[in-house]
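Quick one before lunch.
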Amino acid sequence: MSETHPHGSADVGSYGQRLLDRVLAGSPASESPLTHVAELPARASQFASWPSWVGPEVVQVITSRGISQPWTHQAQAATLAAEGNHVVLSTSTASGKSLAYQLPILTTLSTDARATALYLAPTKALGADQLRTTISITDELRSVSDELAEVFPSAYDGDTPIEIRRWARANARWIFTNPDMLHLGILGSHERWSRFLRNLRYVVVDECHYYRGVFGSNVALVLRRLRRLCARYGASPVFVLASATTSEPGRAASRLIGAPCEEITEDGSPHGARTVALWEPPLQKEITGENGAPVRKSAGAEASRIMADLLVEGARTLAFVRSRRGAEVTALGTQRILADVDPQLVRRVAAYRAGYLAEDRRKLESDLSDGTLLGVATTNALELGVDIAGLDAVIVAGFPGTVASFWQQGGRAGRRGEGSLLVLVARDDPLDTYLVHHPAALLDKPVEATVTDPTNPYILAPQLLCAAVELPITLAEAEGLSAESVLEELELKGYVRKRPHGWFITPEGQQLSPHGAVNIRGGTGVQVAIVDGESGRMLGTVDGGRAPATAHPGAVHIHQGESFVVDELDLDAGLALVHAEQPEWNTSAREVTDIAITAVHESVDYGEVRVALVQVNVTHQVVGYLRRLLSGEVLDSIELDMPAQTLDTRAVMYTITPELLEHSGVPYERFPGSLHAAEHAAIGLLPLVATCDRWDIGGVSTALHPDTGLPTVFVYDGYDGGAGFADRGHVAIADWLTATKDAIVSCECQTGCPSCVQSPKCGNGNDPLDKDGAVRVLTAVLAAITREG
Ligand SMILES: Nc1ncnc2c1ncn2[C@@H]1O[C@H](COP(=O)(O)OP(=O)(O)OP(=O)(O)O)[C@@H](O)[C@H]1O
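Model of the adenosine-5'-triphosphate complex:
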């Protein structure tokens, strides 16, 4: 699907190619930051006719809104759902996934006056957007025929006022909420929702690829709890899931809802030709990072320059930047450049700061659509739920972590049927380096499978307590959830009791108020409040387990675009005091880690290499932090004395014999640096095979581990009980380590830098690191695995 054009060769290319040539005009071909260009061809619409089961009024209203015919994927998914099948629709951004659930739901709710539906979104902002659209459709439906039953769509989330909540419970037939509120506000008091649950016909799970890791596993259990309560009330709702394009969406969706789910992946919506450019900022000559390593020009600064060039060409451009402050700095940078070349354009550039207010987004969307604004730098706040008519160019400054997010952001470019440009600017990070040098991993491969593990006992136990409070857990249900041993442990603690008909909550279990104790977005459930010591204003919370790393004294904390510095962290009181300050640097904590193997789940012997999936006890301690300027330059390293924390989690590990290492050209004194560098890069690359963030996982490497007696490298899940990431790494170890090796080899630095083997959170100050040794370690391990495998 991809075709490479040497830089500057296409003088009569597509619109996207012409924009790209303009952006590249300044740099000589020999110093081109471009690593790859692909032309993705245009795709034509494929229409279906309106399915005969769709109510004629629904067709009339939808048609009057500019949709004259459904695309094939919309009709197929909607019909599967209307026939009673759970279905996931996994197609491109802006391919009209909403219509697939609107058709069956509106048809059912407007003809059956009692039927209800539930819409779930991962963010409140997205839920609010969908509600707004739905209200306008149902208003029109009512004006078409007053015979049709009222739908009363309503929000029910943390922002909904008490009186509206009461009204919604009693009257609304289509509730818009999120999994957090479903867990706490609906399932937690299901008796008050009996009308709604008894009549529940459809459940929409929008953007379901967001539910991964600990959050995904929790949502999977919340949905199972919903299904079993519905069954108790005599309902069996059909689930309609919408997903970005991912590999095996049907499998992931089935695991999420706990029932077989059909998948629709053939996209009938049109899109224009797209030029995708992969871009690696140059190494800077005058600036150095930790241990004198070279530092690349920042992705944000490159994005500013690219955006300025595009705006001069009149191209409407959106730049996605990883942090809130980064978005502001990028917009400012663009304005500065424009002030010199075309001052008129300065005021047509803006930053989209967080706040997630629907009105702000509406204004921005309309300003971009009518051309008042030409360029916007934004965080991923604009990734979900925007309906911008189509932009000419999107710059993604820093790989957003998952291929699904990359396409979601990139999909904002391209008015229907017209060409567009999408540029990925790599950050100083091994995964970004890998992707810009291995375009197939980004462009040709199906998007990663999402990872969830609803059987993790750390997630399952609190969820089972919630379930038992809601309704005793039958023996069959316990078996279906693989929950027997976890229930037995809860029984030993006195929280549940087994009776002939199932598991019942005890008064002691009730007293725990299990619903409030579960934080479905992950973490320990213990929260540390971030409070402005000057005004007493509470800014937000961080998870207790992560507080030593993110809210230690001296840490820079960003809240809605404003920055604060932490003065004091009191873990016992759950409080971090901060003051407003705009330092020129970021901070990143450095941790030291010890690891002990407590059980071996799987182990394969490849001769001198052994690969295993193990249970581990990890003790880690924040020992200091680095202060780093926005340019990437390291200012200094400051020591801290924080309490140690322990995790019981899962790890993927490999051992390699000293003989094989020496034979591979790594002498004994280079063992530590070589293994350490191989471990860092492997952590950076795990997100390629398991949808996770490098901050969700950790690693340890040692030249002699007491439990194995050998040089050993571990990569573990950073959550109690694990989150499924190490398991994915274990399954895909050959692909993962091959990519890790390739990322190191691709990096042009001499002895290691943040783009390959340095890690931003290394407890040992990225020392020792042996880049050449890491390649030798990985080559030897891969040779053993692939030879035997
Ligand atoms: N069959 C159709 N014909 C023409 N336009 C359509 C059709 N279906 C949907 N649209 C329009 O496409 C746009 C995108 O629709 P929608 O927001 O449902 O997409 P989506 O796939 O949910 O997007 P996202 O990827 O952001 O979740 C809307 O403006 C909608 O009106």
